[in-house]
Amino acid sequence: MKRFRSLFAGLVAALTLGGLALPAVAQEQSGGDQGEARREAQAGNQLSLREIERRILPQMQGSEYLGPAYDSIARAYRLKFIRDGRVTYVDVDARTGKVIGRSR
Fold first, then answer.
1. Are 77 and 57 in contact (CB under 8 A)?
2. Residue-averaged pLDDT of the chain
3. Sequence-ordered strand ranges (E) for 1-104
4. Model confidence over 7-25: pLDDT tens digits?
5. Pairing relation of β-strands 99-103 and 76-83?
6. Distance between CA 83 and CA 89 in Å, rounded?
7. 82 near 63, Cβ under 8 Å?
8. What is the pLDDT of residue 3?
9. Using one digit for the tens of pLDDT, what is the confidence trace for 38-71?
10. Buried b vs exposed e over 71-86: b needs ≥16 C-beta within 10 Å?
11. SS3 of residue 22 by DSSP
12. Which residue has the higher pLDDT, 1 or 61?
């Protein structure tokens, strides 16, 4: 009986740890929106984030670049900037590199 308990406890621990790791593994394999952006850029269907940043950042002189977000459905990047305490989002079509929206 004691041996059964230790086997059972080990099995429960393994399943619990494995269960916690599964969502992370699934997410890593799919890559989410970032993985989708990377795959599309590698396939030549859209521009890479680095190319988008190379085109847009010079247009935002005087602003601090806070980082990007990617929307795989719209196939667009949203670049976030701040200047004088005001946040500006610049939406860029990932296929063409053209600015499709700007919010302040």
1. no
2. 79
3. 64-71, 76-83, 86-93, 99-103
4. 445 544 444 444 444 444 4
5. unpaired
6. 11
7. yes
8. 53
9. 888 888 789 999 999 999 999 999 999 999 999 9
10. ebeebbbbbebeeeee
11. helix
12. 61
Which residues are CB-contacts of 94 (< 8 A; sequence separation ≥ 6)? 37, 40, 41, 46, 47, 52, 70, 75, 76, 77
- The dihedrals phi and psi of 88, each to the nearest 5 degrees, come to -125, 135
Tally the residues of the chain.
104
Q: C-alpha distances in angstroms, 33 versus 3, 36, 37, 84, 89? A: 47, 5, 6, 30, 18
Q: Which residue has the tokens 């719209």?
A: 74
pLDDT-derived band at 2, boundaries 50, 70, 90:
low
